[in-house]
Specification:
The protein is an alpha+beta fold. It has ten helices and eleven strands. It starts with a strand and ends with a strand. The C terminus is likely disordered.
Length: 296
Amino acid sequence: MNVRVSSRGSGRKLPIALYDAGYQKVREDERCLWPFYQIVVCYQGKGNIRIGGERHELAPGTAIFLPPGTEHEYEAGTEPYYLSWVSFLGPIAESLPSYYGLAEPLRPLVLRDAHHPDLHLQIMSVMEYVDLSDSAERISVLLYGVYTSFLLRFSPGRDSIEPETPPAPANRKIDEAVQWMRGHLHEPADVSRLAGTLDISRQHLNRLFQMRYGTTTKDFYLKLKILQAQKDLVHFPEADVKAVAEALGFVNASHFSRVFRHVTGVSPTRFRAADSGARGRDEAGSAADFRIETSQ
C-alpha cells in the first residue's frame, strides 16, 4: 500500500514547504527524477537504490538525501522493502546544507545508522499534521527537524556513515543522554550533570558519543541547541538574538554568537537576514492545504 500526502498550494510563503510525504512498500523497479529536495528512509526490509550508476544498499536505518534533478532507481529485491519520505522546497532547503559544510553543487548523500530510527518517526509526525487546519507553520518546523537531523549526522566529504556499533546497554545510555539533552535545551550545556544523571563518568559518556556520532558529548549538545536556535530565529523574527540565546541557556549573546558561528559558519544575525531575504524571493508553494492519496 502507498500513502502520499501533498500540498495543493495556497500562495502562502514559508522558508521550507512540504511538497509531499508518504510511505510505501517497494515490490518492483521504479525510476524517478523529481524537481524538489527529498529525504528517503528505509525502515523495514532490504533493497537497493541506484544513483548515478552507483548502487547503494537500503536497510533499516538507511537515509538518502536527493537534491532536485537527481535521477535514481529503486530496485526490487527478493522480498519487498518499505520506504518513507518527505519532499520539500524553499529557501532554507537551498541554503541550509552550506551551514553544515556541504559544498555546491549539492550531491546525493547516503547515511547508514541502524540505531537511529528518528528520521522515519519524524516523517510520520509530518503526516500526522496534514489533516489539521492552520498546520502550515507546524509542518514547516517538523520538516526543518527532519532536514537538520540528517545534516547533523552527516560528515562532509564522506558518502556514508557506518558508525561503530556500541553494545546494546551503551546504546540505551546514548539514547537516554540525547533524550535528556532535548528536554534541557533551555539550560546551560552541563555534561557533568548529564553524566551524573546517567550514573556514568563524563569520560565514558564522551567515548560513547565519539563511537556512535563521531563527536564529543558537549559538541553534540551544543549542535542540538543551535538547531533549535535556527528554528527560533526563522519562526520568531520578533525575538532578538539575546532573547534566543537566553532561552537556550547561553550565558550571554556573545557566547551564543560564537557557538552559532562555529557550528553554522555565519552569525545569528546574518543567518536570519539571509533567510528573510530568501523568503521574499521564494516561489515555493504553501503547506497549508493537502490532499491524501492511497493506492493498493
